[in-house]
Amino acid sequence: MRLSLNVDHIATIRNARGETQPDPVTAALLAEQAGVDGIVVHLREDRRHINERDVRLLRELITTKLNLEMAATEEILKIACDVGPELVTIVPEKRQELTTEGGLNVIDNVSLIRDTISELHKYDIEVSLFIEPDIRQIDVAAEIESDFVEIHTGIFANAISEEEQFDELDRIRTSVKHAKKLGLGINAGHGLNYQNIKVFREIQDVDEVSIGHAIIARSVFVGIKQAVKEMYDLIKFG
Ligand code: PXP
């Protein structure tokens, strides 16, 4: 299981004072030195954290993979095609939300998402769809030629009882198996942290986990390299 780091929250702190520090690009480069496999940023319509300059600098400077999260809008699609990340992850986006809430409804937005995928493919950019662990959504993702799905792990992460966590893990496991059978690559993320990763790592066939909040929060106390290394150790050894 590979690990990619979402550095949006570094930009959130920077923007809180309208200054230049802390710099998300520096965070990404330090995380790469600690062995991270990829960098994730979400370029939001309202630019509340990451801005276009950050994305372009990351494209120039990082040596791992850039995964650009974006809503399927014309404006951001143009930027994505111009920047050329290795992977675009299409996510739902609401202005009022604190963070991405729930997965994309691919079934109800099939023609928009199909067109977005096909445009990105023209630029040799692979595409992932951020969805709930739901077989019907996975089937449609494969039908419209998505390369990956990213399974939303929010319900698993927020489960308040062991039983609820176990049930959701089962739903994720079944979805991952199904996606694998259809030839999709499989990422996962949202709410994964230093505790629940010990259980989550047992799921087979997840190619990569995408983690932001937990690692960035820990890095305030131990530094970003140490925070990344601790997560890696848990992914590898439990
Ligand atoms: N994957 C996607 C698609 C996301 O939108 C987010 C949140 O930005 C994450 C993963 C990471 O979630 P967290 O910050 O809770 O680790």
From the structure above, extract its key features.
238 residues, alpha/beta, TIM Barrel, eight-stranded parallel β-barrel, 8 strands, 48% helix, globular, binds pyridoxine-5'-phosphate
Offer a concise description of the structure.
This protein is an alpha/beta fold and 238 residues long. 48% of the residues lie in helices and 17% in strands. The model has no long low-confidence stretch (mean pLDDT 96).
How would you characterize the overall build of this protein?
The protein has 238 residues and is an alpha/beta fold. The protein has a domain at 72-237: Aldolase class I (TIM Barrel). 48% of the residues lie in helices and 17% in strands. The chain has helices at residues 8-16, 24-33, 52-61, 74-83, 110-122, 135-143, 154-158, 162-181, 197-200, 213-222, 224-237, and strands spanning 2-6, 38-42, 65-70, 87-90, 126-131, 148-152, 185-189, 208-211. It has an eight-stranded parallel β-barrel with strand order 1-2-3-4-5-6-7-8, surrounded by eight helices. Helix 2 runs parallel beside helix 3 and helix 10 (213-222) packs across helix 11 (224-237). It is globular and about 45 Å long. The mean pLDDT is 96. The structure holds pyridoxine-5'-phosphate. Residues 6, 8, 42, 69, 89, 91, 99-100, 130, 150, 189-192, 210-214 line the site of pyridoxine-5'-phosphate.
